[in-house]
Amino acid sequence: MPVTLYGIRNCDSVKKAQSWLRANNLTFDFSDFKLNHPDYTTISRWAKSVGWEKLLNKQSKTFRELSPEQKVIDDEEHAIALMHQYPLLIKRPVLESEKKLLIGFSESTYNEFLL
């Protein structure tokens, strides 16, 4: 089953996910948000799958640095456009396989859905 892990290299949650995948002998491709920004269609697909509220990381440094006007997010379309413009607003890691999309890292969730 092909698996792609999205995030940034220096994120602790991404590092934990990578370590878990390697420890469980699961091969994966890694896509760094800083080098390969996800396109609008991909972000839209993720938002529709898990909900834009879960995908948008309001705890991130990037979100805190937005203007007060930008922080007012009224709907999914606005949220997707903002995450497309600022990919570091996407909660990390994003793990995508043919059958599942997981946001954030939880060892128990990875165990449940990937083993």
How would you explain this protein's 3D organization?
- The N and C termini lie close together (11 Å).
- Strand 3 (94-97) and strand 4 (101-103) form a beta hairpin.
- The chain has a four-stranded mixed sheet, sandwiched between helices.
- It has six helices and four strands, in the order E-H-E-H-H-H-H-E-E-H.
- The chain is globular, with a radius of gyration of 14 Å.
- The protein is an alpha+beta fold.
- It has one domain: Glutaredoxin, CATH 3.40.30.
- Helix 2 (40-50) packs across helix 5.
Summarize the SSE layout with pairings.
Layout: E1 3-7, H1 12-23, E2 29-32, H2 40-50, H3 52-55, H4 61-64, H5 76-85, E3 94-97, E4 101-103, H6 107-114
Parallel strand pairs: 1-2
Antiparallel strand pairs: 1-3, 3-4
Helix pairs in contact: 2-5
What tags apply to this protein structure?
single chain, 115 residues, alpha+beta, Glutaredoxin, 4-stranded mixed β-sheet, 4 strands, 14% strand, globular
